[in-house]
């Protein structure tokens, strides 16, 4: 469908066909079902180096949340995602549905089109002598919701639940509603439900981030409309919103129609305060700094040529093919300090786990890189490069996350436990199989090696208990792995 770039390290079948492998983003799954980038396969039967099966098994035993699935084949993810290999995947429960409807997915994506309606993906890169086709960020000039440009949606004058996903390749969304006094009541993040909702007039979503929100149309009369807007500059945060293509401001128009308003997604009860959210949370064991066994300081860097064109991106100063460094032990808690040394924002996604943002702290990257000061980042928050004390995460970055915005010149500290949200062991052995990935979710960057592998190391102390737990389960998937 699109030109491929042979200068990138990519899945390259000899006999043609499109290599692909699906990743369930946010899913707690065995690594052989995780869409490892080298586990691709084609319709002609060719496979990547870590392929084991084209059947992926999702056990769906995790907190209630909206996941999404997309292609993850090495070096061509951006093409497969732009071509349409993206969708939402919601894990719910009967108990949840006694309180709340499953909600309506709003999968937001930007694309470019040719006049004949075909998707326009650039076939010549910004550095054609170096990378034939690669562009550092694919921005569409048109925004789609669930595959439709500028849709409208008829609602009743009531409260609805929506699951919003930013499925754009590179565009950060800053969402708002164009009626004063209307809010997003955010009830969940990437990683599932919050203990209580918070109300926001604007909602920032990086590529891959999700927001579970209630929107209250009850103050509107029949025939009135509300537009879901975007004011996210490109790039965030330095871009000029007045340079945005005109068809990327407006996303979706809600029209109040008492006769024909959609009845799915409708929340029972008249007020957000009527809903008892705490009853929906799993018994959670909170993440604690006291439990941290390792702090990893990891750089987030783009490497430019003399004309400031980005040539290559790295995490922890390594590319995808370098030996695995991150080998956390199952069940233990770590802090990952993501040190963004350049001027671009990168949303970093870690497979397998949901984590929490501890804090963010800005520093002088120029002084740091010239060796004139120190960060002493491990547990740090001290060090002469820092410009200010560590700050709590922005409100929309609280709660459980699988993707976090790393701002330029900022250390973003996340706390991760390599277990389920409630502290239990996973229902499968995460140390088996080819392992997992962590990467930038600007998919163009991901394809230009801003991605690193990690593996989970078995926990010998817990091994006997976990072995009994996993073998006591009735499900057959454990046998299937074997
Ligand atoms: Cu990036």
UniProtKB/TrEMBL annotation:
InterPro entries: Cu-oxidase_C (IPR011706), Cu-oxidase_fam (IPR045087), Cupredoxin (IPR008972). Residues 314-459 form the Plastocyanin-like domain. GO terms for molecular function: copper ion binding; oxidoreductase activity. Transmembrane segments: none annotated. It comes from the Eukaryota. Pfam families: Cu-oxidase_2. PANTHER family: BILIRUBIN OXIDASE, CUPREDOXIN SUPERFAMILY PROTEIN. Belongs to the multicopper oxidase family. This is Plastocyanin-like domain-containing protein.
């Amino acid at each position: 469908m699109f030109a491929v770039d042979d200068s990138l390290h990519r899945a390259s079948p000899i006999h043609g066909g499109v290599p692909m492998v699906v990743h369930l983003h946010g899913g707690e799954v065995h690594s052989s079902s995780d869409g490892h980038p080298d586990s691709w396969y084609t319709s002609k039967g060719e496979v990547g180096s870590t392929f084991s099966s084209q059947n992926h098994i999702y056990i769906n035993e995790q907190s209630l949340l909206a996941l999404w699935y997309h292609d993850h084949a090495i070096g061509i993810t951006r093409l497969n995602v732009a071509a349409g290999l993206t969708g939402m995947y919601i894990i719910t429960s009967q108990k949840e549905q006694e309180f709340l409807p499953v909600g309506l997915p709003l999968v937001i994506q930007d694309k470019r089109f040719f006049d004949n309606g075909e998707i326009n993906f650039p076939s010549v890169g910004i550095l054609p002598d170096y990378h034939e086709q690669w562009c550092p960020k694919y921005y569409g000039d048109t925004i789609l919701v669930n595959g439709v440009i500028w849709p409208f949606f008829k609602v009743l004058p009531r409260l609805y639940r929506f699951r919003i996903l930013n499925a754009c390749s590179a565009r950060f969304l800053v969402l708002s509603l164009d009626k004063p006094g209307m809010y997003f009541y955010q009830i969940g993040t990437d990683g599932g439900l919050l203990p209580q909702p918070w109300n926001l007039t604007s909602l920032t979503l990086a590529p891959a981030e999700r927001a579970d929100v209630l929107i209250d149309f009850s103050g509107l009369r029949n025939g009135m409309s509300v537009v879901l807007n975007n004011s996210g500059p490109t790039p965030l945060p330095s871009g000029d919103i007045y340079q945005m293509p005109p068809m990327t401001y407006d996303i979706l128009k809600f029209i109040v129609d008492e006769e024909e308003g959609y009845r799915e997604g409708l929340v029972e009860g008249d007020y957000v305060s009527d809903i008892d959210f705490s009853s929906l949370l799993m018994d959670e064991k909170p993440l604690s700094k006291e439990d941290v066994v390792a702090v990893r300081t990891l750089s987030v860097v783009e490497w430019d040529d003399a004309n400031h064109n980005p040539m290559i991106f790295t995490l922890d100063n390594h590319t995808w093919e370098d030996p695995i460094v991150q080998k956390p032990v199952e069940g233990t808690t770590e802090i990952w300090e993501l040190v963004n040394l350049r001027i671009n924002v990168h949303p970093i996604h870690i497979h397998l786990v949901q984590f929490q943002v501890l804090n963010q702290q800005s520093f002088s990257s120029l002084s740091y890189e010239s060796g004139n000061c120190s960060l002493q980042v491990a547990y740090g928050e001290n060090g002469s490069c820092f410009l200010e004390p560590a700050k709590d995460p922005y409100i929309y970055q609280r709660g459980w996350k699988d993707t976090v915005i790393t701002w330029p010149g900022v250390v973003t500290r996340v706390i991760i436990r390599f277990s389920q949200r409630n502290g239990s062991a996973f229902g499968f052995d995460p140390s088996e199989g080819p392992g997992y990935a962590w990467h930038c979710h600007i998919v163009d960057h991901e394809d230009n090696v801003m991605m690193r592998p990690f593996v989970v190391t078995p926990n010998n102390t817990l091994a006997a208990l976990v072995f009994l737990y996993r073998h006591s389960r009735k499900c057959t998937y454990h046998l299937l792995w074997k």
